[in-house]
Amino acid sequence: MACCCGYSEPIDTERVVVVAPLTMAAPIKVVVTGAAGQIAYSLLYQIASGAVFGPEQPVYLHLLDIAPMMGVLEGVVMELADCALPLLTGVLPTANPEEAFKDVAAAFLVGAMPRREGMERKDLLSANVRIFKEQGQALDKVARKDVKVLVVGNPANTNALICSKYAPSIPKENFTAMTRLDQNRAQSQLAAKIGVPVQDVKNVIIWGNHSSTQFPDASNALVKINGAEKPVPAAINDDEYLKTTFVSTVQKRGAAVIAARKMSSALSAAKAASDHMRDWFLGTGDRWVSMGVVSDGSYGTPRDVVFSFPVTVSNGKWKIVEGLTISDFARQMLDNTGKELAEEKQDALDVCKD
């Protein structure tokens, strides 16, 4: 599930490492899969420090990875202890999915087989669908029925769909896929183009799949300039840029990071996962955020695929933003990414029959 090496002797997965005494509210159990990998290495501190669930919510971390990674995971557990984080009440490292998912309130499904050189997207899907089928079955058996599941491992949208399919006792709306990284990338690009702080841009939308067919949409975005909000398209005043350079830059950003860094975008992915789960638990206020959720057919999208929409979140429940105007250009982009998701869904279901 994770790509690391240099591990030592396997650790006892039955062991529970207690890091800090119980404080304040009762702790919630949070699982991170692929816990010895790069994204988790950045993500775990954010969860345990209070950046995700709030400064008064203790957490008990369940760390899942494959058996050969237990040595590496032991080092991660040591580092979590050495951080001396007041909100971290305990850590359970394990290679057993049922142990990892037991009674969890939140699940970050990060671990997945990475795409290797020469591997087609369908090959990646075939390998990872089986992982997420197994994890869905484990969630169904032992997790809390109100668990909030965020799928980060790619292909994230279809992995989330399969995970939900094999956890029928958990509501479909409790399974989401991460497109927040794409939203953060889009927001950053627009802020740089306009010349404002990134927090002054809001309501950028990512439609569809977390793939190169996604549609980063600035048509409803707002920017604060000199204390007043105005539409981003008016502030940029370059429709051609918003339909071409902006879209392709966001679509290809992950590949650009890999080309420059020789590794995938782990730091920004971890930040996006934190943002996604924080907003799901604590709410979005007047901002829209992009989440891959089970489609109800809104905006002419295929039903029963996990499709990224603009949503608002209140009291732990997401709701698709309604009533937006879809231009002819946007219609074409939504149809293209929807078609890919429908094809991925069928490919995944075929794999599950094997």
UniProtKB/TrEMBL annotation:
Binding positions for substrate per the UniProt entry: R115, R121, N154, R185
Reaction catalysis annotation: (S)-malate + NAD(+) = oxaloacetate + NADH + H(+)
Catalytic activity, EC: 1.1.1.37
Keywords, comma-separated and alphabetical: NAD, Oxidoreductase, Tricarboxylic acid cycle
Catalytic residues as annotated in Swiss-Prot or TrEMBL: H210 (proton acceptor)
Domain Lactate/malate dehydrogenase C-terminal: 179-349
InterPro entries: L-lactate/malate_DH (IPR001557), Lactate/malate_DH_C (IPR022383), Lactate/malate_DH_N (IPR001236), Lactate_DH/Glyco_Ohase_4_C (IPR015955), Malate_DH_AS (IPR001252), Malate_DH_NAD-dep_euk (IPR011274), Malate_DH_type2 (IPR010945), NAD(P)-bd_dom_sf (IPR036291)
Pfam family, one: Ldh_1_C
Binding residues annotated for NAD(+), in chain numbering: D65, N128, V152, G153, N154
GO aspect biological process, one term: malate metabolic process
NCBIfam families noted in UniProt: MalateDH-SF1, MDH_euk_cyt, PRK05442.1
Record-stated family: Belongs to the LDH/MDH superfamily. MDH type 2 family.
Cross-referenced HAMAP family: Malate_dehydrog_2
Protein name: Malate dehydrogenase
Organism expressing this protein natively: Papilio xuthus (Asian swallowtail butterfly)
